[in-house]
Amino acid sequence: MRAAGQNAITYQGELRSGGVPAAGVFDLRFRLYDQATGGNQVGAVLCADDVSVVGGRFAVSLDFGGVYSEPRYLEIEVRADTGLGCAQSGGYTVLAGRQALTAAPW
After folding, report:
1. Rounded to whole angstroms, how far apart are CA atoms 106 and 9?
2. Do 6 and 62 meet the contact criterion of CB atoms below 8 Å apart?
3. Would you call 78 helix, strand, or coil by DSSP?
4. pLDDT exceeds cutoff 90 at 105
5. CA 90/CA 38 separation, integer angstroms
6. How many Å apart are CA 74 and CA 83, to the nearest integer?
7. Which among 73, 78, 88, 106 has the fewest CB atoms less than 10 Å away?
């Protein structure tokens, strides 16, 4: 039996707007897929509300559960914080290109 959060990963990213590092508070949504394009979504949509972005950089903890036995690809949506909660889907932009998740020692 695994402890809660044992499948969590730390995702560190960089946001740019107009070619320069973004700054401020943003809402981020994450989806995991089994293919780089198309394919099937794996697990739930995860949302990180009110993420502070400094110099374009941010870090969030994501826990999709025990779904990492096969190759997985991360899709990210972003919007500047508007005061809306994660469940309200308006205003998000899907960032181009899903990112392959790869293993790293810990």
Report:
1. 11
2. no
3. strand
4. no
5. 22
6. 25
7. 106
- Record the tokens describing residue 40, joined without a space: 């099937």
Q: CA 62 to CA 19: how far, in whole Å?
A: 27
Averaged pLDDT of the chain: 89
Q: Is residue 24 a contact partner of residue 81, using CB atoms and an 8 Å limit?
A: yes
Please give the pLDDT value at position 50: 93
Whether 16 contacts 22, CB under 8 Å:
yes
Give the Å distances, CA to CA, from 97 to 24, 72, 76, 105: 23, 13, 9, 25
Q: Structure pTM?
A: 0.88
Q: Can you tell me the distance from the alpha carbon of 38 to that of 33, in angstroms, rounded to the nearest whole number?
A: 8
Q: Does residue 32 contact residue 45 with C-beta atoms inside 8 Å?
A: no
User: What are the tens digits of pLDDT across the range 22-65?
Assistant: 999 999 999 999 999 999 999 999 999 999 999 999 999 999 98
